[in-house]
């Protein structure tokens, strides 16, 4: 089972990127079943590495290793242990494996105290699932492992979506604590149930929220809102168009004994537009929309969306108010995001002063050579009027 690369291909693969596209392959030798492990050679028949193949995907091979080693349970366990070691953390809740960034393409593992949630996005990784589960059980001895493999890319890979306990059992809402705040990861919710990537950004925003009137826009289960309230916010409004997310936000608020909040089940774009008219003014606004574009072809509409929502938020802020603005759209670069924010400030007659520039935490590492691992932008901006 050998894959040979073409001669004049870009040096991306040689320089450490694990993806091999269909148009980079000269030939595939042998009758290889999709999802199986293949040995990859360059045009001079020099061994490059091992990975898994899927002819249904434009990314034909994802490399797992550059060494000639067996891909077995020991290999997977070694990779997970390496990911844990590089995190160097004593936290009980963290992202254990971040896919390509941890040399395990197609695998996400989040640990919520005694429970683990995994998300598998590729057929090749799906085939390695028994090794993944065995390794996680040996390393963490968890009470339960929930598989929440629901990404749309699974369909292209020829896989069904999965959402079930694959080891042990646990509650539908998995309890965990972050920054001494009680949270619930929703096994029926979005992604792995909670957005661990925003936990430090939310904590920093909290520092700016004491005695403030706040708005958590695209709140999901209220990560930013509870951090604001914990820091002493006077009041927080949460907006999300997922009713379920708000119901769980309500439970989380009650768990933490917070009372000064209001839940609004609405489309944030419309809601902010209407508030605009009634000119309700906030001291602090967080805007954390979902990814607006999956591929570069939708980038322009994503930028339009960012400009619109940030402009609306800026109009609702008091002079000198704080805008915490996030973008998780991988195809939108930090510079493009900044340019969009500048365009929104220009339209609203304001300037934006950066008080904090955040991004992905240590357990969502960015491999600079694999730019797809870089997705989260976060800015804490003081918005100041220049035109009255
Ligand atoms: C990236 S998540 C927010 C994560 C959250 N800030 C956290 O840290 O846990 C985006 C959220 O936006 C919500 N959403 C998507 N489109 C929306 C819209 N047009 N109006 C309101 N909410 C929307 C989704 O339901 C989802 O909960």
TrEMBL record:
Its subcellular locations are:
Cytoplasm
PUA domain boundaries: 1-85
- Chain coiled-coil ranges: none
Any one Gene Ontology biological process term? methylation
| One Pfam assignment | Methyltransf_31
Which GO molecular-function terms appear in the entry?
A: methyltransferase activity
InterPro entries in the cross-refs: Methyltranfer_dom (IPR025714), PUA (IPR002478), PUA-like_sf (IPR015947), PUA_sf (IPR036974), RlmI-like_PUA (IPR041532), SAM-dependent_MTases_sf (IPR029063)
Keywords attached to this Swiss-Prot or TrEMBL record, sorted alphabetically, are: Cytoplasm, Methyltransferase, RNA-binding, rRNA processing, S-adenosyl-L-methionine, Transferase
For this chain, the family text in UniProt reads:
Belongs to the methyltransferase superfamily. RlmI family.
Record PANTHER family: RIBOSOMAL RNA LARGE SUBUNIT METHYLTRANSFERASE, S-ADENOSYLMETHIONINE-DEPENDENT METHYLTRANSFERASE DOMAIN-CONTAINING PROTEIN
* Protein name, as recorded: Class I SAM-dependent rRNA methyltransferase
Please report the organism this UniProt entry assigns to the protein.
Thermosipho ferrireducens
At the highest ranks, the source species' classification is: Bacteria, Thermotogati, Thermotogota, Thermotogae, Thermotogales
